[in-house]
Amino acid sequence: MALIAAPLAAQVALPRVQLPQVGPEIGATLDSLDELRASLRRTVDRLARERLRTIDRLVRRNTDVIEMDAEGAPARRGELLVMDVSVKALDLALQAGFTMLSREEIEALDLSVVRLGVPAGLNLADAQLLLAQLLPTAQVSADTLHFQSGSANGAVFAISAQGSASGSVPVGMIDGAPGPSVNVAETRGFAKGAPYPSNHGSSVAALLASAGADTIRVADVYGADKAGGNALAMAKGLGWLVSSGSQVVTISLVGPSNAVLERAIGAAQRKGVVVVAAVGNDGPAAPPAYPASYKGVVAVTAVDGKRRALIEAGRALHLDYSAPGADIYGRNAKGKRIGLRGTSFATPLVASRIARAMGQGRNWRSALDAEAIDLGRKGPDDTYGRGLVCSTCKGR
What average pLDDT does this structure show over 35-51? Predict the structure, then answer.
């Protein structure tokens, strides 16, 4: 389990970890600073241990649909994804005992993915290694799971729009479905039982609208599926959003690197779509989170109401912006106001700002850089990125 790179699962109840206050008052003694550093280290250690325990529970409770892949990440049981495979090579795999489940043509992205069932008697990890040997020129991956990167357990104050939503280009969202109290243009399901209202998806959609997004479409990749949030569902959802006209897509989910999703995001970017993603909540010592770490994706981290970086904020291979991700309210699936904490909730704020800038005919990077407040050391850094966006958002 120590090798697991996937983040905390939203499908199971997450333990609450008491987070120390960051940023001591001026004049604090050296002893108090040492105590703060020690407290932070203990908190990060607890987050890491709880992450592993949570994932272990998820897998053990859902062995019928989830198992570990060759990299030690949770994935859909008994299924492998293959790209760039010839008919002749595919025949070799079938002769070796793999079964053809489906061929997925992902709309708008010119992407073809073959789903194969693993041979009887082989676990997913061993089957993945075998298939990679049989098909050395193909791209083989497991259908790895991605998890929502935020929870409803923080202290809160209301956050909403600054300015008008007019002029925003259409925004797409890959997450759970929002509840009926959140007004979106369209929701489509890409998982068993989807669309199915979720607290996380409801809050992300509400924050999108509050920060200035106009037309919002939602690809529900969770539904009621215990193995929801998988890479193929996300790629298919992205394809639908692109075909429907979304020019910005926000993803508050995190997981390991996956070839299918990376290829899909690259195809969307070549069509001019801006993809925005959260860095996750596994702490700065965690492995890099994806899709935030893919090339060209706008990676977002979070701060609290006092503009302090969240201690649990994860990391990506690059960092673009920070935005409020604690001391804020959202809406659950029933429309009730709930407290939010996590990089999940900073991400739609940044995505909405990008959509507004694009809708006004502005260069979105220049617009966000002009708005961003430089925190931490001068210039871009690994804690706050290029600065804090949406800093003056307040209740309306």
Answer: 68
Instruction: Pick the last residue of a domain from 144, 174, 194.
Output: 144
Under 8 Å between Cβ of 299 and 279: yes
Residue 216 CB partners (closer than 8 Å, separation 6+): 170, 171, 172, 173, 184, 185, 205, 208, 209
CA-closest candidate to residue 146, choices 179, 175, 172, 178: 175
Q: Is the peptide bond before 15 cis (omega within 30 degrees of 0)?
A: no
Q: What is the CATH number of the domain that holds 90?
A: 3.30.70
- Residue closest to 298 by CA, chosen among 364, 381, 238: 364
The predicted structure's pLDDT at residue 157: 34
For 229-275, what is each residue's pLDDT tens digit? 999 999 999 999 999 999 999 999 999 999 999 999 999 999 999 99
**284: confidence class by pLDDT, cuts 50, 70, 90:** confident
pTM (predicted TM-score): 0.87
Taking the CA atoms of residue 351, residue 356, residue 359 and residue 364 in that order, the dihedral angle to the nearest 10 degrees is -70
